[in-house]
TrEMBL record, chain A:
Principal subcellular localization: cytoplasm
Dynein regulatory complex subunit 7 MORN domain: residues covered: 442-717
Domain CEP76/DRC7 peptidase-like: 317-391
Annotated Dynein regulatory complex subunit 7 C-terminal domain residues: 774-878
Protein name per the record: Dynein regulatory complex subunit 7 isoform X1
UniProt keyword terms in alphabetical order: Coiled coil, Cytoplasm, Cytoskeleton
Pfam families in alphabetical order: CEPT76_peptidase, DRC7_C, MORN_DRC7
InterPro entries recorded: CEPT76/DRC7_peptidase-like_dom, DRC7/lobo, DRC7_C, MORN_DRC7
Domain of life: Eukaryota
From TrEMBL, chain B:
Swiss-Prot/TrEMBL keywords: Cell projection, Cilium, Coiled coil, Cytoplasm, Cytoskeleton, Flagellum, Leucine-rich repeat, Repeat
Keyword Coiled coil found: yes
Function field: Cilium-specific protein required for cilia structures.
Record-linked Pfam families: LRR_9 (PF14580)
Subcellular location: Cytoplasm, Cytoskeleton, Flagellum axoneme
Source organism: Galleria mellonella
SMART domains: LRR_SD22
Name of the molecule in the record: Dynein axonemal assembly factor 1 homolog
UniProt similarity note: Belongs to the DRC3 family.
Length: 889, 545
């Protein structure tokens, strides 16, 4: 309500003059809004006919096939024959797993069980709406609703809590209201298909949400019941937008002192008349009452007009939402989640009118309690069978209470354990990829209309300027007069985070993250201000800590320029410049006064500590104000009329008559002329420096503004170093690396070593190698040489290793013998030295042994490989053929 | 007296930077200002007397606020008469003929000391200069570089210049300096690197270790002493210094020769003594604890009161400032109108007779505004004074109460002590009587004691004397506590009252002074107008101001 009031205030006061105070009627007009969002789901397309069978009407029409089918559908009769479905097609999806178009034996049993249950229920509760126990899936096959839930754990940062999951679901899907609002859905496609399609009816969306919630560990249920029209249709232009940032300032209350103050000031005598006060108060109360009355009346009218239009089938609209029961994941109170919004609602929420049944992947519970007193009056203990009728006797393990049952005894164990339970889900795992998760909204973009507000959401990187959310607040219901726009950005190179555009004041507020080169954190400017000049209305706030000059804030306007500093070493706190408008001759504005204020410097007495310097540039005077000393209510002042430097030839001369001042302390000595003179010199110098500084500052700021203008007109987005999808430079780098690697392996393959090469080279010089095959004689020679050399090399290596092995081994043995002979006369040091040495020797011997065996093992296959290679060598083709021919080995 | 004369004519004004005092080119303005004002010796922070052939340092005591003194390039032979210049921060005695470092003990704030180019042979008499930061001893006659180990005691010393001493020819000299003066960063204005230090350390390992040990010992002693002093000071704030622990009792026995003599009997007596000590410590611990708590409570009380008063003062100052601002606003149009009148008169647009009613009018309204200002400022001040008065009274009552309570507790504690003392005395007498005349038992006692123990009267006398002594000691300590606590309270309460009265008077004075000032300013403005006019008109207007 507060938003309504706030938003409608300016307009209504304007119109008050012409139409009187009650014209909010005009604004709050449902028709206007519906015209604006003339969405097809609002009117038409819906068969808002009352259902024929279960509302206990006399069915008079003749019994045709179609009316029979309709009756079956309305009653939710479970079809107990199993149609053969081959090659199912649903919209664009064709490849379905087998479980989608066939029912397993257990599923069939469950359906039969459900049909039985339905009949009994129908018999006992004739007046109640038929139950939703099954629904045809996208292949047209009836599936029990419990098996459609496929608990899945999502592995993203914020999908561990119900808030994160619910928001994801609300963002992820387009909402399709039920075609027949009073009946159960005609189809209930698998949550997997819903995720692919990115849209679904409330039941389908609720199935996705409940699957993920159960996967995340919540005790969550789908609720089948009735809700208000706005909820069923996902109409939100009567709700206040929850995304409007709260701008009311946080008032920090000073905690009252803990103990009673022992000392108190004597209160001043109160000399006003009590009677007068009372009379005044009465008068004021009366006035206030009247005002309140008018206000209340107005609010009442607005509320009246904002009420949703009358709904004929109110209380009969079928809807599905989520119930989360306490017990897991720190949930302490049961609550509802609306899947289309992702919001939590308490049990007493008015929008949910009726609760038929709840179910999860384990069981189906039918509500036996009356919903007339609101849903919060129900008992949510599902194990209480007087309140909840269970479809399956076999409770899930978590609910079972095993009292006095001996599971060791086989028979009782079977009796207690073996009930029919819900089979595993027929749906595939409901994972979504990181990409899809990031993209979030169908088509990267979602628009929601709230009351006087349009909310737009975008996925990151989908927009050129990096916007992720935009809230537009309007003054009227028809969304024609914009008031305020909020925008949120992400991943911008210029670190802009939020923008607030006030269309009434024509003011823009930009906020930045820390880390900009110019350290701006807030920039407020008028839309009419020139974009790249300081001579407009704007305020810049800086992260002073990072700046060398400790500049905190700049406030510019056409004729002023104020700088504020924090924590500067020279104690300067602010510098304010007032300009006068430029004349025809000199169009540029000219400085009139410069006022600088300084913090108190505790190390020097107040009378010497300048508090404020004012340079009157046009009048050629300087005024100095000093700080207030303790217990003083006046401060020292000093004013100078500046000497004309041109006349004195650049020298600063001192004339006592051109300065005057006031000394606050009556007991103080008069100041010395010399000191006064020095102060004058100093401040004239300072004035010159300040002038220069201001010119520099203006140039700087103009530079910043130019930079900002560029950033705004050509937004750039920042890509994280590790973002494999978007980091183009890195991607290019990888690709290059990959190709390089590929090239290297390619080259290596080509440059296979030809063991014949050195022999060929020896025979023919290094140019040879690719020419025609060698003659048989040459080939024999080369081949022989090659094989002989190979053999010799192998042998040499073996000998070498063997030799070393032998030496070391004998050394080892010798040592051992020496030790055995001397072990009783050895000193402990020597003994330990021996052990160390012998361990090392043993290791070496062992290593050589291993090498030797390895060599022996390998030399045979190596030789084979060489032979094979030589047999296939192109240059030895002739020779090989001959050899083959003669069978020479 | 030659120094005196040169001093007067050559003091450079504080604000001129030393390098900037070019006498010939500085414009005459400065000089004429000096001539007019004279020199304020007691305010001069910097004095430079260089190349003056000064033979002796003297008459510098009048430069009370001196912070930097340069007496370079003179003929000084002895450091003297600097005792009064305690605020001295920088002392330059370079290029003189000084032979001995002396008479610097009072200059505890000295940070920069230059004795460059003198005739010093030994480093000495500088122990009190704990703040020394920069020290120059170059170009002197130091023969032994080990002398320089003296500089290790200056914990803040960062820069030393040493070049030009005879021992500098020894290559080991610098090695030693670099390694020994571990806290010094710059030697001869060059940074000492870590490697240089290390290599020096390797050479002088033994010597350095000795030095280090000595240093460490003195350092430890210093820290222990500081800690002890701090503790005593802290206890003194709650008037119970030296009362925690047995030390006071021990000192009591030390001061009483008779008692300690009797103690030498030993045996049973020592056990009783220990018991006595224990009881004493216990009693006093209770008192000390209570006194600490009382101290905290008092501080809290003072803080509460001070907060109230300060806040009230702040408020009133704020209010007064607002009133003054208001006044400035009202005054502005009046001043402008007056200026307008003056302008008209000076441009001869109107005669004084025509303007007279206007001037009188303005004067009256200005006086009204001024009176209004005076009234509101005085009201604010009076309110402040009166509103705080009650709290002040309350505060003094509370303080008195707290001190009284403390006294009571301390009286009890001291009473207990006296009782303990009496018990001790009795036990002492009893155990001594047992031994009286027992030559065997007293065999190894000192001769004096033996003699005493042989004579009953003497022994009794001694016991009585010791007991008397002790009682006197206890009384003195109790008196000290009481007087100090009472004095403290009186000072605090009286001080608070006095301060408040002084503050009040200061404020009223300031208000009136300001009002007078304003009035004077206005009169000046009118005078400017009437100066050119005949005295009759002045007389006519004169009534108003």
């Amino acid at each position: 309500m507060s938003v309504v009031k706030l938003a409608s205030e300016p307009v209504s006061t304007e119109k008050n003059l012409e139409m009187g105070p009650m014209d909010t009627l005009l604004e709050v007009n449902e028709n206007v809004a519906s015209k604006i969002f003339d969405r097809p789901l609002e009117e038409g397309e819906f068969e808002e006919i009352s259902p024929r069978i279960f509302s206990l009407k006399d069915v008079k029409e003749s019994l045709t096939k179609s009316s029979l089918n309709n009756a079956i559908y309305e009653l939710g009769v479970v079809n107990l024959c199993w149609p053969e479905i081959s090659e199912p097609v649903f919209e664009t999806r064709t490849c379905f797993p087998k479980s989608y178009y066939t029912n397993s034996a257990k599923e069939r049993l469950l359906l039969a069980y459900a049909e039985n249950f339905r009949r009994q229920f129908q018999f006992h509760y004739r007046a109640r709406k038929p139950l939703l126990l099954q629904a045809p899936n996208e292949c047209g096959l009836q599936k029990m609703v419990c098996t459609t839930i496929r608990p899945t754990k999502l592995c993203y940062a914020d999908t561990n809590t119900w808030q994160g999951i619910a928001n994801l679901v609300a963002d992820y899907f387009d909402y399709e209201p039920l075609k027949k609002p009073m009946l159960h859905p005609e189809r209930l496609m698998s949550p997997y298909t819903a995720i692919i399609r990115r849209s679904g009816n409330p039941f389908e969306i609720a199935h996705v949400l409940v699957s993920w919630l159960i996967g995340a560990g919540y005790d969550a249920y789908i609720v089948v019941g009735c809700a208000k029209r706005d909820v069923c249709m996902a109409i939100r232009y009567r709700t206040v937008c929850p995304d409007i940032p709260d701008e009311s300032e946080i008032v920090e209350e000073v905690p009252p002192p803990e103990e009673e103050p022992r000392y108190r000031l004597v209160p001043l005598p109160d000399l006003t008349s009590k009677y007068c006060q009372q009379m005044n108060k009465k008068e004021e109360d009366k006035k206030q009452n009247e005002l309140d009355k008018i206000e209340n009346e107005r609010m009442r009218k607005i509320a009246d007009l904002e009420k949703p239009p009358h709904d004929e089938i109110d209380g009969w609209r079928t809807h599905a939402w989520i119930l989360v029961l306490p017990g897991s994941m720190g949930v302490e109170e049961p609550f509802f989640i609306e899947p289309s919004e992702g919001n939590q609602y308490p049990l007493e929420a008015k929008q949910y009118q009726h609760l038929d049944s709840v179910y999860n992947h384990e069981n189906y519970y039918v509500n036996l309690q009356s919903c007339d007193n609101g849903l919060n009056s129900l008992n949510y203990d599902l194990s209480d069978i007087t309140c909840w009728e269970h479809l399956l006797a076999g409770e899930p393990f978590s609910r079972r209470q095993m009292v006095g049952i001996d599971t060791a005894d086989k028979k009782t164990a079977v009796d207690t354990e073996k009930h029919l339970d819900v089979p595993a889900s027929w749906v595939e795992k409901l994972d979504i990829t990181a990409d899809e998760y990031e993209q979030r909204y169908p088509g990267s973009h979602k628009v929601i209309h709230y009351k006087k507000v349009v909310l737009e959401k975008f996925s990151p990187y989908s927009q050129r300027d990096g916007i992720v959310k935009r809230v537009k607040i309007f003054d009227d219901y028809a969304l024609t007069i914009p008031l305020i726009t909020y925008e949120w950005y992400k991943n911008r190179v210029d670190k802009m985070e939020t923008v607030r555009i006030d269309h009434v004041k024509r003011q823009v507020l930009e906020r930045f993250g820390v880390g900009r080169r110019d350290h701006i954190i807030k920039h407020v400017y008028s839309m009419d201000a020139p974009a790249v000049s300081v001579e407009g209305d704007r305020t810049l706030e800086f992260n002073y800590y990072a700046r060398l000059d400790h500049l905190t804030k700049l406030v510019c306007s056409p004729l002023t320029f104020d700088e504020y500093y924090t924590d500067r070493d020279d104690r300067l706190e602010s510098r304010m410049i007032v300009y006068i408008e430029g004349t025809k001759a000199e169009p540029k504005r000219q400085m009139k006064d410069i006022t600088e204020t300084y913090r108190r410097n505790p190390s020097i007495p107040a009378k010497d500590d300048v508090f404020k310097k004012i340079f009157h540039i046009q009048d050629n005077t300087i005024e100095l104000f000093y700080h207030y000393a303790y217990n003083f209510i006046t401060n020292n002042t000093r004013s100078y009329i500046k000497p004309n430097l041109a006349e004195t030839g650049g020298k600063i001369l001192y004339y006592p008559e051109k300065t005057s001042g006031y000394i606050a302390d009556p007991c103080a000595k008069p100041p010395r002329p010399l000191n006064i003179y020095y102060a004058l010199c100093e401040n004239m110098d300072w004035e010159y420096k300040t002038n220069k500084h201001i010119r520099d500052r203006e140039t700087d700021i103009n530079g910043y503004l130019k930079q900002r203008y560029k950033e705004l007109t050509e937004p750039l987005l920042f890509v994280a170093l590790f973002d494999t999808e978007r980091n183009e430079a890195a991607k290019k780098g990888w690709k290059e690396q990959e190709t390089q690697k590929a090239e290297v392996t390619e080259r290596e393959k080509e440059a296979e070593i030809d063991p014949l090469a050195p022999y060929l080279a020896r025979m023919f010089g290094s140019g040879r190698g690719t020419g025609a095959p060698l003659t048989i004689k040459e080939a024999t020679l080369v081949r022989e040489q090659c094989i002989n050399d190979f053999k010799a090399k192998q042998l040499a290596r073996q000998n070498l290793v063997q030799e070393r092995f032998d030496t070391l081994n004998s050394e080892y043995k010798n040592k051992r013998l020496w030790y055995l002979a001397n072990q009783f006369i050895l000193t402990p040091e020597k003994e330990s030295a021996y052990f160390a040495a012998s361990a090392e020797l043993a290791f070496k011997v062992h290593a050589l042994e291993v090498r030797l065996t390895r060599h022996k093992d390998l030399s045979e296959p190596r030789y084979k490989i060489l032979m094979e290679y030589l047999d296939k060598h192109p240059l030895l083709k002739d020779y090989n053929r001959m050899r083959h021919y003669y069978g020479v080995k | 007296m030659s120094e005196k004369k040169s001093l007067n004519s050559l003091i450079i004004h504080p604000d001129i930077e030393p390098g900037n005092n070019n006498y010939t080119t500085t414009n005459n303005n400065f000089r004429s200002k000096f001539a007019e004002e004279g020199v304020h010796l007691d305010e001069a922070p910097i004095v430079r007397l260089e190349f003056q052939n000064i033979l002796r340092i003297d008459y510098l005591w009048m430069l009370k606020s001196l912070r930097k003194l340069t007496l370079a390039h003179n003929l000084i032979e002895k450091i003297e008469n600097l005792d009064q210049l305690t605020g001295l921060n920088e002392l330059d005695l370079s290029f003189n003929k000084i032979e001995k470092i002396e008479n610097l003990d009072e200059l505890v704030n000295l940070e920069v000391l230059s004795l460059f180019h003198n005739k010093i042979r030994k480093l000495e008499n500088m122990d009190t200069l704990q703040n020394l930061l920069v020290f120059s001893i170059g170009d002197n006659l130091i023969e032994d570089y080990k002398e320089m180990a003296y500089m290790r005691r200056f914990r803040k010393l960062r820069s030393v210049s040493f070049k030009g001493n005879p021992c500098c020819d020894d290559p080991m000299a610098y090695q030693f300096l670099k390694s020994a003066l571990t806290r010094v960063t710059y030697l001869d204005y060059k940074t000492i690197t870590e490697e240089e230090r290390e290599s020096g350390k390797a050479i002088f390992r033994g010597l350095l270790r000795k030095l280090d040990e000595a240093d460490e010992k003195s350092e430890k002693e210093r820290i222990a002493k500081e800690e002890y002093d701090a503790k005593v000071e802290f206890y003194a704030l709650s008037f119970v210094e030296y009362l925690s622990g047995p030390e006071l009792l021990e000192s009591m026995f030390e001061k009483d020769p008779d008692g300690s003599l009797l103690l030498k009997v030993g045996g049973e007596l020592l056990g009783f003594y220990e018991q006595y000590k224990e009881q004493y410590v216990e009693t006093m611990a209770g008192l000390v604890e209570f006194a600490q708590e009382a101290y905290n409570a008092r501080q809290h009380e003072i803080k509460l009161f001070k907060d109230l008063v300060n806040n009230a003062l702040e408020d009133s100052v704020q209010k007064s400032k607002e009133v003054l601002e208001e006044f400035e606003k009202k005054k502005k149009p009046l001043t402008e109108a007056m200026n307008e009148v003056i302008r008209k008169f000076s441009t001869k647009q109107a005669t004084i007779e025509q303007l007279e009613p206007r001037i009188v009018d303005l004067g009256e309204s200005f006086n009204d505004v001024l009176y209004e200002l005076w009234k509101s400022l005085m009201t604010i001040e009076m309110q402040l004074y009166e509103r705080c008065e009650e709290s002040r009274v309350q505060f003094s009552v509370n303080m008195t109460e707290m001190i009284t309570k403390l006294m009571e507790v301390s009286r009890n504690a001291f009473g207990a002590w006296r009782e303990n003392e009496a018990v001790w005395s009795m036990r002492q007498f009893e155990s001594l009587s047992k031994l009286l005349g027992n030559k065997v038992m007293l065999g190894d006692a000192p001769a004096e004691l033996f003699e005493v123990m042989m004579d009953r009267d003497m022994m009794m006398n001694l016991v009585a004397q010791s007991s008397d002594n002790h009682m006197r000691f206890i009384d003195a300590r109790e008196d000290l506590l009481m007087t100090r606590a009472n004095n403290w309270r009186d000072d605090l309460v009286q001080g608070t009252n006095d301060n408040e009265i002084k503050r009040n008077r200061d404020r009223i004075l300031e208000i009136n002074y300001f009002i007078d000032n304003q009035r004077e300013e206005w009169t000046d403005m009118q005078m400017g107008l009437t100066e050119a006019v005949d005295p009759e008109t002045v007389a006519l207007l004169g009534d108003d101001f």
